[in-house]
Amino acid sequence: MTDDIGTRDTGLDRLLPGHHFRSRYTRRIEAGPPAVWDAMMGLAAEDLPVSRRLMALRSAGGTRLSGPLIESFPTPDLVRDEGTELVKGKIAKFWRLRPEPAPVEPGDPAAFTAFGEPGWVKAALSLRVVPDGAGSVLSFETRVHATSASARRAFAPYWMLIRAGGAGFVRLEILSAVARLAEQRA
Fold it and tell me: In which element (H, E) is residue 128 found?
């Protein structure tokens, strides 16, 4: 499997080159990058039953995903390199019962990169498609950078909780659903 993430300048690398927390999941898919990208963009929240339940639970019922996942996901787009990479990101105090958003314009990549006020964390999610022979590799990477040591300490237990509580499963369910759709269409 080929994955050039370490040798390519990605949107995620430009927005959040350093991180304190990271997860990365990949899936090889027997379909070319255009089919994988189209499947990713067309993936419906209804295709992800467990993820929908986990999101509703996390938001105490306040987030109900429906329709195209990319559009209904509650994190704004920061970079969209059509056919290759989508990066969504947000700055907040995620560890609070109701995460507090930072005083920065949502979806503004320059504001996201420049923000450095202590006490917050920057979280970015990247879905990236890389050619691999006759198929593709789809990766789902999450990076989190704390703007201060106190924010890092406050976020660490939350990170452990979401990692144990299903965040990895959500990512694996998304990769699996995209693979199923792309391979059906290929």
Answer: strand 121-132
Tell me the C-alpha distance between 36 and 29, whole Å.
8
3-state secondary structure of 161: helix
Domains assigned to the chain: 13-185 (3.30.530)
DSSP string, 42-105: H-BGGG-HHHHHHHHHHTTT-----SBHHHHSSS-EEEEETTTEEEEEEEEETTSSSPEEPSS-
Q: pLDDT tens per residue, the chain (186 residues)? A: 334 444 468 999 999 999 999 999 999 999 999 999 999 999 987 888 776 666 655 555 555 566 677 887 778 999 999 999 999 999 999 999 888 999 999 999 999 999 999 999 999 999 999 999 999 999 999 999 999 999 999 999 999 988 876 788 888 999 999 999 999 987
**Which run of H or E residues covers position 107?**
none
Closest CA relative to residue 99, chosen from 154, 59, 50, 52? 59
